[in-house]
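Q: How would the structure tokens look for this protein?
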Amino acid sequence: MKINQDYDAIIVGSGMGGMSAGAMLAKDGHKVLILEKAHAPGGCSSSYFRKGYVFESGATTLIGFDEDQPLWKLEHETGIQIPREEITPSMSVWIDGEQLTRYKNREQWIMECVRVFGNEKAQRAFWEEAFKVSDLVWKVSLKNPHFPPQKLSEWGELMTNNNPLDVWVLKYAFQSVADTMKKYGVDTHKFRRFVDEQLMITAQAKSEETPFLFGAAGLTYTNYSNFYVPGGLLEMINAIRSFIQNKGGALHTKEGVEMISREGEQFMVHTKSTRKEKFTYRAPIVISNIPVWNMKDITAGEMSEYFQEEAKDFDEAWGAITLGIATDDVYPKELPLHNQIHLEDGDTIPFTDSDSIFVSMSKPGDSVRAKEGMRTLNISTHASPELWYSMNGSYETAKQQAEDFIVKVLREKLPGFADAQIEVIHTATPVTWENWVYRKKGRVGGIPQSMARSLLKWTPHETPFKGLYLCGDTTYPGQGIPGVTLSGINVYSRIKKNHH
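A: Here is the predicted structure in token form.
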């Protein structure tokens, strides 16, 4: 067995958390190897090619480039330039036959809420509080790379790194978004439906379950700069990949990690490629960017027991049903690229508990993603992995019924779609997702927010095994591209501290 010892750090999985950690280490001169089992890098923030079109891994928005946000820091520190164009307004929400436009301008957004939900004084008070909390959360989270604290010294850092005047925000770790809505008098049925569906995209949970500390950022993300990556999110991953390769690192796709074991101060990482070739690498540092649920299967002994224990608390998580559709471009010019469509009150998509669908479209004229005169649409909605894994004989029928229902909703509610000719359509369920990105049970989007889980109960970035670190959406601070980027930056800070 030939052992490759060329690398200072090995990263398992090429999602945005691992890519960010890799880029930060590469800028300091560390030789990094990233191992990815799938055909394309990027995990859930990637693109794939199908029948002449480029589709995104799921319907998704992109923020985090404003000052004090994680992608701003990543670019700032490394000099990487992620190709992007700002889009404004970033999104429309279609609810009860009405279009609610998510303006970036905060005053304009408050007035839009007043137009649709009424009650100006209460709406203004609620949103002003949400902006205040969200701005502070972004600023504070970037300033505290060793969170959640794991050592006495890190508790000390929390005291010295932060302004004592910011402590007021912590009460919102114990108050849900629903509590805060009641407090400000905006808890109407229609507004709650709107808030619940927005939170399902950003927090994977509804207003009762999401602490306002996280929910504020989840509700106001459209009030920061939102971006589109021409050619698809894979181009963002490729920009980071080039940087790492130029610094002597490497990214191998179609090479999955089968086992991580320890040998003295070093880790042995055993892999198998899709061509059935086996490789072994040795390095003092390993960063896992795969979900905590997957880790017990690729570790043994104490390590495996640790991950089994960590994953036990988070046995509930969402999967997704996603559709990729290519149609001719018959959409109104002013239609935003992102649209959240509510079903009729009380309706759900078959074989899901989902009350809304989220649509992300390619930009008109993006000739990498769609040929001239055509557009691609990515549609996502939440689904229970357990249900889709228990279908057996009825799986194909259920999948077709979900697809037909979603297409019918688009024809009724997405402007222009009723006149569109569908050239390509394919549907993926949690089962498909597990085959694509190898996440256990096809769970995507991390761990749902929960009032029962305190800030300190998040899976930490540092494990009890010296040199083994975790990032990605099942660690603090959770899901979304800015969230996982922050987790990668935090892992880098820990490594810098522990392995000077």
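The mean pLDDT is 94.

The two ends are 31 Å apart (CA to CA).

Upvote if useful.
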